[in-house]
Design a protein that fits this description.
The chain has one domain. Helix content is 85%, strand content 0%. The chain has helices at residues 5-22, 26-52. α1 (5-22) runs antiparallel to α2. The longest helix is centred in the C-terminal third of the chain and has 27 residues, at 26-52. It starts with a helix and ends with a helix.
């Protein structure tokens, strides 16, 4: 089974951003955008480590 965790995290980031755009509560909106950013950052770190060797 070939599972790309970085792609999974990017997909999750998209879901969090969609939820954030729909959120009414500003604190929830902020938390969801932060979660999306964390997912992207971790995905980038994983990708960097894979390409580094």
């Amino acid at each position: 089974m070939d599972f790309d965790f970085d792609d999974y995290l990017r997909d999750e980031a998209v879901k969090y951003r969609i939820l954030a755009e729909q959120a009414v509560d500003p604190l929830i909106k902020q938390e969801l955008f932060e979660l999306a950013a964390i997912c992207e950052e971790v995905a980038n770190n994983i990708e960097d480590r894979m390409t580094a060797g």
